[in-house]
Every structure is written in structure tokens, then in C-alpha cells.
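Input.
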Amino acid sequence: MDVAADRRAYAPGETARIRITAPFAGPASVAVLTDRLVALQEVQVAEGGTEVEVPVDAGWGPGAYVSVTVFRPGETRQGHPGRALGLAWLQLDPASRRIEVAIETPERITPRQRLAVPLRLGNAGDAAHLTLAAVDEGILRLTRFATPDPVGHFMGKRRLGVDIRDDYGRLIPPTDAAVAALRQGGDEFSVGAIDIPQRTVALFSGPVAVAPDGTATVTLEIPDFAGELRLMAVAWAGNRTGAAGKPITVRDAVVAEALLPRFLAPGDEARLPVLLHNLDLPEGEVVATLSAEGAIALAGPTRLAARLAPNARALPASLLRAEATGEGVLRLAVSGPGGFTASRESRITVRSSRPVTTEVAGAELPAGETRSLNPPLGRFLAGSWRASASFGGPTRYDAAGMLRMLDDYPFTCLEQSASQLLAFAAIPMDGVAGAERAARLQRAAEWVLNKQRFDGAFGLWSAQGEAQPWLTPYAVEALLRAHAAGAAIPEAALEEALKQMLEQVDETNRDDTPEERAAQAYRLHVLALAGRHRLGAARRLLERLEDLPTPLARAQLGAAFARAGDQPRAEAAFAAALASGARRPWLFDYGNAARDALAVAVLLKESGLLPARLAELQGRLPGPELTPPGSNTQEQAWAVAAAAALGRDGRPVRVAIDGQAQPPAPLVMVALGGPATVRNTSDTAVWQAVSVTGIPAQPAPAGRAGMRVTRRFLDLSGQPLNLDALRQNTVFVLLLEGRAETREAHRAIVQQGLPAGFEIAGRLAAGEVPGMPWLGTLTEAVASPALDDRFAAALDLTPEAPESRLAVRLRAVTAGRFELPGADLSDMYRPQVFARQNTGRITVLGPDDPLPALPPAPAPRPAAPGGGMKN
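Output.
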């Protein structure tokens, strides 16, 4: 049914005339609706239509909907009962609540100055205020950010805020008619990555009072920037608002821009073009003087010059060398005709794509003895390492190194993010993470929460993934422990997750498989941790205690009983966990024997039960043989948690570093900035561990154990590519093939670090690639994160499908000499199963660089006796 208003907008107190054109005559109900029912009247609609008057009320706010329902009684000659529904929006005219805003700036300015921005308000009245923002137009376009419109926001069309229901529809028989669309509303429902420095501008004034004459001046500090800014002003006074936007170009008379690669690795050399563009100056020589500091140095000319006419440009070049890991700063001092001078600054990250590794040295430090701490810093790239020392504690592995390996892990699936969160929640506030603990804890919590699905469960790589039966309670446990440690965890997210687990627990027949029994035990433990005990389900599971597949599952059931106060059943479950034999790695719960021993120790310690058995278990925990690089994220997380839990009420350790006494604690962890000395001021010997985590100065040699990995660089016709003659702007294909040889299932990650001169031009989907039959059938990756410095993909390799085949399209974008990392394939949860290639170096030729000379042909072999050639 058509319902139409006679005008687009109305002033308060006016009368709106509503034209109703119905498919049949009959009684009608006319309702005025906002977020509630405002008014209701009954009218009679004639065959040809009817007009209804509706008084317009200022109390509607921005406006109101008029809903009309016309009924056709069943006894009429037209046949069956009928009903028609129509809706129209009545807009209140926003003109009386609009403030006119004008931004009075020139069209173009130069950078590096204090800019006074005059603003003028019309119809503002008294006590008006405004804010002014200046933001890079490129950012706004990427994010599709519209200039703020407060009038449209406050006075715009709203979604219908009520539901329309009646019982008349039960009298109407179903028909084949199409469902009508209800036209309404304006509200819209909408790691490990390398840090690439970006020059962005986002300036904001904050609230500024407007003078009685309607004027204001806001001063902005315009930085070193070339491009377009969008000025956006928002004003308000009482119930009136207004806004304005204006573009402003920021540039010098001469544009000078260093065209840097996105990153470099230590030892790389890159061609450094510098764009010189004379926009406004008379003809003359334009000179750019280059200087570098930090992690980079100039290996070519420091003075680049060109004689440029107006609107002419040149692209002279120098050579840039990466000296160390860190950030490099490149500065340009530009001069031109008429005394023109300007300065520009660019930054670049220098970081190797070699994997991070950790070295640990442990020893006993006798009471009263002083020793030197000499972490092997020379074996790591300068600027890439972090060192620490730990003293005391109930364990003999390097908990601080485990925490750093978790923090540096380059991928963030649900298990890895939850492991980081669990570890950071376990360490004390003054632990090795120091003042950054809270920020890292919150970051890990956000990574976990980003993977929560619509039903409260969690997906492995994203919120769109399948619900994970074991990882969901693992994630919720990490969130609960992080909440107790001070992280800001939304109550609604936790409530949805707990609700989903309660529903899973209460379903019948959920213990038919080892996987479901393990997941059920974990759900019961996490629900008990949240105070949501389900003792009936726990007792049913206890009846099948011997069928629980892992020591951890039995300990989790024991922890659920312990938190509910049922000590006998808790002790029975914990005793079964401690009596379990050695378990094998199992992909379903990401676990192994070492992980289970550490996690069982944590749960048993928290329960306060069986202290003698806990002491016995503590003696069997992994020691120095459990190293950070040799462990997976599950082992690392529970190793950190066990060190914290078991040492919480231990005997305090007293040590002094470089003569400065450290606060006594059962486990003392100290960050090191270099060599130091330590003195044990305790009256007993303590265990000392010194670890360094960073990028090794020398790449790891090729090796493999249980896996193979190969790579090929091919041109777009499928022919092998000569990397010694690769020219800038060439597009080619990288083909990575892997194979697991263990006849076991592996959750694997394949990585190919990119030389700084390469970039990913496009990813090739699984299956047959149109136009590239020579690639064969490509494998479907579980996930493939978008990274600047490497191609990576997560894979599930099984005994039935042990091979993988992935391809990506690359482009050579920067001329120079670069490190080419080897391809790497490894099991994410069994690091000892891997395949790794050697690291090499490549050269990308510039457009005018000559091809390298071919090697001389080998000398002919001497003829074999009898005139033949010897094979």
C-alpha cells in the first residue's frame, strides 16, 4: 500500500497531509511511531484513496513514522479477509537547528608551519563551541570516512524503533504473493607484521569557544607533509549544530621525495631514487643533499642535482645500505632558485625476516657468590635482541625466555593468541614484562576476542571460522584469568561464551568420542572457574574417568570438583591424572606429555589438594631441556603459568644486579641491557638462567626432519626464472611445495621470507589457476595472513594428504642487492618436525643496468681412447 506525505519536511506545529492509496476500501488504523507509539486514530479508507491530517509535534525529535494498516473484513464481496500495510516518514525541518559554518583558509599552503585557520559561524547565538580536525585525505578515502554531519546524525531519518504486530494475519489464508519490503531507516549496521613507518597527519583542536560575533581562530601545527588535508569543523550551541569540510593542498614549491623500499634487511643495498619536481620556481638547479642515521647509511652520492624548468621533474638516484636492525632516518635538504630551501624526512624499518630464536644458559649460583652475566649478544643482530636473567623459582627451564618467544610469535590464531594471554595473565605485575605487561595483556585479549563468533564460541583464525570445541574453553579460560589480572574484558563477550559452553555441557550424548570427552572436561573446568558449576554433568563424566583421554582432561575434571568444594571426587580425578601413563601428541587438544605435566601442576597447585603428590610431580617437570625455541606455544604458556603458580608462595630469593638489590620474590626476573654482575645475597644456592631472544647474526643452515620443502621461481609462462638477471618491475610466480614424511597429521606453517626488493602482487587461489596450467592443482590453505615481509600459510597435512602446493605472484619493485631467506615448513606444535632451506642473496637490476656477464664456457673434455668422449 502506498502512503505518501505532501511535503519533504515540516516545522513543528504544522499539519502533515498523508495520502493513503489502498488496494481496497475498509477501516484503517493510522499510528504515529518513533521509538514508541505516539498517537493512534481510526479512519475509513475509500476505494480511490483517502487523505489524513497529522499534527507535527516538536517532541518527535528528528521526525516520526506514520504507519497505516487497512483491513478488509471477511464478509465483504471481495472474498477472504485482507490487510494492507504502508509506512511514511515525516521529517521535521532541520533548518531551525542548523548552524552555518565557513572555513576561511587559502586553497594551498606550505608544510612545516603554524597555520591560523579562521572560522565563521552563522546563526550560532551565544555560548557556541567548535572543533577543527585536519586529516590526510588519503587515509579518509581508504577508510571511506565522510565529513561529520551532526545535523544529519541528530535530525536524520531513523530506523523504525518499534515492532508492528496484530492478530488479524491469522485470519488471512497464505497466498503466492511476494513478501513486501519495508522501506525504513537511515542507521547503518555496519602480527608478527613488520612495522612500516607511515607519514600520516591527523590533527585535532579540541573544543574551542566561539566569540559573540561568531568567529574563531584555530592554530594547527602543519608537519612535514605533501598532499591534501581535509579540514573538518563541527560546531554546536544549545540544540543547534553545524559542520563544514574543506580540502587544502599542502606542498612546497619543489616536491622532493625519497622513494624508499617498504623495508630492508641488514646487509641489503637498495637503489634510492629521489623525485625532484619543480612546480612553482623559475628554471634553475634544484639540489637535494642526503644524510642518513640510525640503522641505514648512504653508499652512494650524497648530493643529487638537476636543472629543472617549471613543471619539469627528474629522478636522480643514490645507494642506501642497511647497517643494523632498527629504524633508519633519511633526511633531504633541498635548495632551488630564488633562495628556496626545504627539508624532508623519511623513515624505514630494517629487520631481517629470519626467524627469532632464543639461547639459554643455566647454572646454580651458590649463596654469597658473585658472577658475571655475559649473554651471547654477538650471536644476534644488533638492535634485535632482548636479554633477561631469572633467579630461583621452582622450575629449571627459562620461563622468561618462554614469555618472550610467545610475545614475538608472528601469527595469531586462536590457540596462539590465547596462549599469549594465558602467559601474560600469569606473570606478576613487576615481572619480566615490566611496565608493558598491561598493554601486552590487553593486546592479546583483543586478538582472542576478535575471533569470537556470533554464537559465543570462537573460530580458529577468525570469527567466521568453525566453532572450536576444545579451543573455545581454552580461550575463555585465558580471558577469565586475564580479567582477574586486570585486563578489560567485556562482560557481554564473556557471558555469551559461558552461555554457549553451558548449552554444550547440557546436551546429552556428548561423551561418545575421546575428543568430546576431552572438550567436556575442559568446559566443566572453565565453567567452575567462572562460578557456573555443573556438578551433575561432572559426576556423569567422573563415572567414565578411565575413558578421559589425557592427564589434563582428568585434572580439569578434578579442578571443577575442587572449585565446587567436592574434595573426594576432586582428589580421585587428580590421582587418576597423576597415574596416567605418557601420552602422545594429539592435534585435537594441541597437547603432549610436557604440556600436560605443566598444566596439571598449575591446576593441582591452585586446588590446594594432594600436596605430597604435587611435590612429586614438581620433581618430574621438564627442566633445562625444555628450551624456548624447542617448545610450542602450548608448552610455553603453561611453562610460564607453572613457574608463576608454583613459585607464588615459595622462599624469597635475594640477589643484587650490578650492586643494586632486587625486590625479594620466589622468582626474580630481570631484563638485561648487556653484560652485568650478580651476587646471591640469599643464604642458599639459587638456580640462575640467562637467555637472549633475537634474530641470529648468521642464518640457520638448511636442514630437515620429517618434512621436505622446495621452491621454484617461474616466469608467467611457467619457465624457470634466472634470479641473476631479474629486472625491476618484472612480475613472476613463486611455487612452494611441501611434504610431510612422518605419516602423521601436522598443523603446519609454510613461510617464504621476501627480499626487500620483492612485493606480493597477488595471491593465487586453490585449485586450477586459469591461464597457468603449469602450476597444477594448488592446495587450499587454512589461513594466509597478509604480511609485507613474507608469504605465509597455515596448512593441515595428514597421512592421506601429506603434500601441499602453494603459489603467489610476486613483483620485483626495487633495484639492489638483497637477502633471500630460505623457504621453511614446520609443524607449529612439534617444532622438531621441519624442513628449512639455506639463505642466499639476489640482485634486482634497474631499468638501465647491464645484464651480468655469462660465465665462460667449460673447456672441452679430452677425447677418450678410441675417439669417443668420456662420460
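Residues 659 and 678 are 8 Å apart (CA to CA).
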